[in-house]
Design goal:
The complex is a heterodimer of chains A (about 170) and B (about 190). Helix content of chain A is about 80%, strand content about 0%. Chain A is mainly α. Chain B contains ten helices and no strands. The chains are: A mainly alpha (about 170), B mainly alpha (about 190). The interface of A and B includes residues 39 and 68 of A.
């Protein structure tokens, strides 16, 4: 059996992931598994070494990077200090704005006056409607009613109406 | 010095001095950069995100409780940054289109040490490295992160779990799949 048709597959993985007594016991007595494990471990070691080499940078690179981090940190400190300095000022400004708006004398005095005027107009209209309801004849038909009453001789004894009648005869 | 820095961070993280933080940067920048470079396969982005990683660490230093090592905490920030970066596919699309993608498996394979007994063996070793790199590229980003932290950074499973915010069982599962993929690629080669 060569390494390409090893049927004890998961045991090598299990042994590489973490310590597994059963897997270790098997591999110790199984030549193909041992060879496969050795090959895999060697490839992983080379991979790790190659990655470390690849990630290597000259000392200047780390110095520049550290300097950039330092600059970014200072900028961050400055921003947070500025924010901390601005917060009290903003709070004071907000309080002042609330205090000014809290007084607001004009709006408070004019609004009730307008409301009273509105209430008066409504009251007048209500009285007028009540008066119209109490009279038997609609206002638009009042002249016709007068003519009928005059012809019937049932003219009311209202002096105002009588004067009006007199004046009309004078013409 | 590490212990002093850790205790400084754990006890009064906000009071850490600029000099302390500069020392932390100098001590850990290589590993953070290497991890990001392997994960992203893009040198420019690895450089940018390394700086971002340390800036975030500085800004959030009060959240470090010393429950994990400082390095694990930094790698966790780096892994989160890499994950967020991977979500932003627009930049990757344009880089791939312009041929600027950092998928430099030949460059990495060329770094194989030349201590092999013969040129043939050196060639085989380079092919193996290329196959492992190809296999790593087939993995999801989380599987790749687990794989790289284990076999390149040689971290313990518990450290990997802490760095990536996973359960140890999940780390083992990711690692198992990764090794299986690598083994398959190496078989294809032979």
């Amino acid at each position: 059996m060569n390494s390409t048709d090893n049927t004890h597959d998961p045991l090598v993985e299990r042994a590489l992931v973490s310590f597994d007594l059963a897997a270790e016991h098997h591999i110790a007595g199984c030549q193909p598994c041992q060879a496969e494990r050795d090959h895999l471990e060697k490839a992983l070691r080379e991979f790790a070494g190659a990655n470390r080499e690849y990630a290597k940078r000259p000392e200047d690179f780390w110095e520049v990077q550290a300097a950039r981090i330092r600059a970014a940190r200072r900028e961050s400190d400055t921003k947070s200090q500025l924010t901390m300095a601005l917060v009290p000022s903003v709070v004071v400004l907000l309080l002042a704005a609330f205090a000014v708006l809290g007084r607001a004398p004009d709006t408070r005095t004019t609004r009730p006056a307008a409301a009273v005027a509105q209430v008066d107009a409504d009251h007048e209209l209500l009285l007028e409607v009540e008066r119209a309801i109490q009279t038997d004849t609609p206002r638009a038909l009042e002249p016709a009613t007068l003519m009928v009453e005059e012809s019937d001789g049932t003219l009311p004894l209202d002096p105002a109406l009588r004067n009006k009648e007199t004046r009309s005869h004078e013409n | 010095m590490e212990t002093a820095l850790r205790s400084a961070l754990g006890a009064a993280a906000q009071n850490i001095t600029a000099e302390d933080f500069d020392a932390i940067v100098r001590r850990h920048q290589r590993r953070v950069h290497r991890f990001l470079l392997m994960l992203l396969r893009d040198a420019d982005e690895a450089d940018n995100l390394t700086q971002e990683c340390f800036l975030r660490a500085y800004q959030n230093r009060s959240t470090f409780r010393g429950e994990s090592s400082l390095e694990t905490w930094l790698l966790r920030i780096a892994a989160n940054l890499a994950r967020d970066h991977a979500r932003n596919r627009k930049a990757g699309f344009w880089k791939r289109l312009l041929g600027l993608d950092g998928d430099d498996n030949d460059g990495i394979a060329d770094q194989v040490s030349t201590n092999e007994a013969s040129p043939e063996q050196a060639l085989l070793a380079r092919e193996d490295v290329r196959a492992v790199w190809d296999a790593a590229n087939q993995l999801s980003q989380q599987q790749r992160a687990v794989f790289l932290l284990r076999f390149v950074e040689e971290m313990e499973l518990t450290e990997i779990a802490s760095a990536l915010g996973l359960q140890v069982g999940s780390v083992k599962t990711h690692l198992f799949r990764a090794v299986q993929t690598v083994r398959g690629k190496l078989r294809d080669l032979r």
